[in-house]
Design goal:
Length: 238
Amino acid sequence: MSQLNGAYYGPSIPPPPKSYRRPSRGGGGCGCLSCCCGCIFNCIISLICKILTTVLIIAAVLAFLFWLVVRPNVLKFHVSDASLTRFAFSNNTLHYNLALNVSIRNPNRRVGVYYDQIEALALYEDVRFASQTLGPFFQHTKNTTFISPLFEGQRVTPLTGDQASQFDKENSARVFSIDVKLFMTVRFKFLFFKSHTVRPKIRCEMNVPLKSRNATTSPDAAFKATECDWDYKRWWIR
């Protein structure tokens, strides 16, 4: 114990060996080249995001300005009058004579409408029995135009048992539920610009009284003007 408390005159104790680690040649770590590539990639992503944001903002502003200047309104369709002088069903054949007067209202002040084609289809119990194609025309702003499709003739129209029973009921009441669909090919005009072709579909659900041979009906059985509905599910642009 006395030797441990005294001075030590032995050989010097060597320092601990230093560990040396050779840098790897692989992709581990963040070298100068990888840092530069990361910075460039981040800059590109940031630039793309800024460009997309700017484009969206400009598009939203232009759309708002267009709406503010044009103030577009939806076209309105009404069946103002309907004359049904024949509607008979026998031997799976439907005999019909139906004349309509349809008003088309363009309430826009700055937008005109080109009606390149209108196809009118007449249906009973969702079964088509007649069709007619109307010629093209242009409708000016703040204008109401009338079209007069006429369905006359006969056609083989097989009805199911339920549909035939419904026909018998309506034949007794002398009032028939007839639908007319308008398939249109239109273009819109604003100043000197014309839109692409648009194909909307309009559906008019009517209760049409059957007139007697002398073309008279009771006041209770008179046709009432009917507003038509848009079918937005069948819109597409060509």
